[in-house]
């Protein structure tokens, strides 16, 4: 009974994840969960200001550090970090698009490798909102708003904000935040820290905190206000990291300065709280220029990946693919672009979106002649084959691509989807299980695994995967329901049954810890 129902439910979920937009559909953020309820006030607040935040005067710079390694063991911090992410996923539109996720992660990793104090795995993720902001949470989780990427004028500028955030983490600047929440259970602390991060990204951290935790918000806010010395330290280390990573170290003051100019257009009385306490002052800009000047000047061409990510985000923001077609055909015609290839890529995506497959194919061929192995082009090519009626040809493109880019995350995800499309779900499970070793928090992988298990007639396994999917998006109630359903299956092996029972106990405990906090 279940199988048929879930099978089609999986199909529905997956069809929402179209390869161009690839963003978690809004309905997943509206699933009722404790965290969602807790944070619903904040979500409203956040989206209330999003409509205005496209304005150039939205200049809040990134912040929120991480709990101290002195207080937490690395294992505890890792757990706190993953709980923080579940809370973030349940309240913010985290972008699941595999290509964009892979881009921000690889840029972040270059920064991390250049920072001598950074250790352990950092996870970078994107949020589908136009704020010009970024924040860091526990366990090296760094969130970047899409608006930041589209506002930067070079990849070095984007890298400078990531370098600043990574420095907050490595310098343990959020020790005091952890002090403020240390009486809480771990899951409740994660919710509180997520609320602080979101609160800092909106204009009203006090309200965010009050809504999320019921604790004395004013008190905690004083605890987390960033000191000038922390900002200076993050700037200074960030600039050094930029230079070490081969980016232009002056990009940081250049970006600050542009943001600062925008902020002067703002009526001071209406400045967001965050900006009032952490302004981009002329001093800060001058200091950053001074520090950048101690490194050799380095002109650095932006990577094609950076330009492609920007255009992919731009295409996702168009309400109708015809807007994209207008925009790109004009820019390509008039030669008004910073990167011709990337604009042509945006044009291809818009043409595909508007079902103009033949024109899309012509344009894509021009791109693949230049860069035949570019992952974005392989995915677009595969999509084009599938949509014009040849899913097998689409699958072959991805399969061949994986030979050149073994275990590549976006190629693997799209390949798994292609296998499901042509009715070969059995191959998907080992493929994605392997992918999860390196990316244990891939929401998309669990979604596809659930479908693959359902399509292969392995219903209880499907429920197990769905439980993990719901767990990752912070919906503990649905996670528990799916585990309970799976455990009722008498054909479950002893091993699987024991594993799922243990998981059920764990998630139940976490849910109780959260509810205890609410009272
Ligand atoms: Zn900062």
Fold and architecture overview:
This protein has 519 residues and is mainly α. Among the domains are: 33-292, no CATH class; 318-371, no CATH class. The protein is built from 26 helices and three strands. It has helices at residues 2-16, 34-50, 74-91, 98-114, 146-151, 155-170, 175-181, 186-201, 205-213, 217-224, 228-244, 251-264, 273-277, 282-292, 304-317, 321-334, 340-353, 357-370, 375-387, 391-404, 409-421, 428-438, 443-455, 459-472, 476-487, 494-518, and strands spanning 123-127, 134-137, 141-145. The protein has a three-stranded mixed beta sheet with strand order 1-3-2, sandwiched between helices. Bound molecules: zinc ion. The site of zinc ion has 7 residues, from α6 and α11.
Helix content estimate = 55-70%
Q: What's the total count of β strands?
A: 3
Q: Total helix count? A: 26
Mean pLDDT: 79
Q: What overall geometry do the principal axes of the alpha carbons give?
A: flat
pLDDT below 50 for ≥5 consecutive residues: which ranges? 1-69, 203-224, 267-277
Give the oligomer, counting copies of the same chain as homo and different chains as hetero.
Answer: single chain
Largest sheet: 3 strands, mixed
How large is the share of residues in beta strands?
A: under 5%
* Main structural class: mainly alpha
Give the cofactors and ligands: zinc ion
Q: Helices and strands, in N-to-C order?
A: HHHHEEEHHHHHHHHHHHHHHHHHHHHHH
Using only C-alpha atoms, the radius of gyration works out to: 23 Å
Strand order of the largest sheet: 1-3-2
């Amino acid at each position: 009974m279940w199988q048929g129902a879930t099978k089609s439910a999986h199909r529905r979920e997956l069809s929402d994840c179209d390869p161009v937009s690839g963003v978690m559909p809004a309905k997943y953020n509206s699933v009722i969960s404790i965290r969602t309820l807790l944070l619903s006030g904040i979500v409203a607040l956040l989206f209330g200001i999003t409509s205005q935040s496209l304005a150039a005067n939205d200049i809040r710079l990134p912040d929120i550090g991480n709990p101290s390694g002195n207080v937490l063991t690395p294992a505890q911090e890792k757990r706190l970090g993953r709980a923080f992410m579940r809370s973030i996923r349940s309240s913010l539109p985290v972008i699941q698009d595999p290509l964009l996720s892979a881009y921000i992660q690889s840029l972040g990793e270059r920064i991390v490798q250049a920072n001598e104090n950074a250790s352990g795995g950092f996870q970078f993720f994107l949020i589908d909102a136009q704020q010009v902001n970024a924040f860091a949470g526990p366990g090296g989780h760094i969130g970047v708003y899409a608006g930041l990427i589209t506002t930067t004028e070079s990849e070095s500028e984007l890298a400078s904000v990531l370098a600043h955030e990574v420095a907050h983490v490595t310098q343990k600047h959020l020790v005091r935040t952890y002090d403020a929440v240390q009486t809480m259970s771990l899951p409740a602390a994660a919710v509180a820290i997520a609320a602080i991060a979101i609160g800092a990204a909106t204009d009203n951290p006090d309200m965010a905190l009050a809504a999320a935790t019921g604790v004395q918000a004013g008190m905690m806010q004083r605890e987390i206000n960033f000191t000038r010395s922390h900002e200076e330290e993050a700037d200074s280390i960030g600039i050094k990291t930029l230079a070490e990573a081969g980016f232009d170290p002056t990009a940081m003051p250049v970006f600050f300065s542009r943001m600062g100019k925008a902020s002067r257009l703002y009526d001071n009385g209406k400045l967001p709280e965050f900006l009032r306490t952490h302004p981009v002052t002329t001093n800060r800009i001058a200091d950053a220029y001074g520090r950048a000047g101690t490194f050799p000047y380095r002109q650095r061409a932006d990577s094609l990946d950076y330009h492609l990510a920007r255009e992919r985000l731009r295409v996702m923001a168009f309400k109708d693919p015809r807007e994209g077609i207008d925009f790109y055909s004009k820019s390509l015609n008039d030669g008004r672009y910073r990167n011709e290839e990337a604009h042509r890529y945006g044009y291809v995506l818009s043409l595909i979106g508007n079902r103009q497959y033949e024109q899309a194919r012509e344009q894509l061929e021009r791109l693949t002649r230049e860069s035949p192995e570019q992952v974005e082009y392989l995915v677009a090519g595969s999509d084009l084959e599938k949509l014009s009626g040849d899913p097998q040809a689409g699958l072959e493109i991805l399969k061949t691509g994986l030979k050149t880019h073994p275990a590549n995350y976006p190629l693997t995800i799209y390949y798994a989807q292609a296998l499901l499309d042509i009715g070969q779900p059995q191959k998907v499970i080992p493929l994605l299980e392997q992918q999860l070793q390196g990316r244990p928090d891939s929401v998309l992988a669990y979604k596809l695994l659930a479908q693959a298990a359902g399509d292969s007639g392995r219903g209880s396994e499907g429920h197990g995967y769905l439980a993990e999917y719901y767990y990752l998006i912070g919906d503990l109630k649905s996670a528990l329901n799916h585990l309970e359903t799976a455990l009722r299956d008498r054909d479950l092996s002893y091993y699987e049954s024991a594993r799922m029972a243990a998981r059920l106990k764990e998630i139940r405990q976490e849910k109780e810890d959260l509810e205890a906090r609410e009272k």
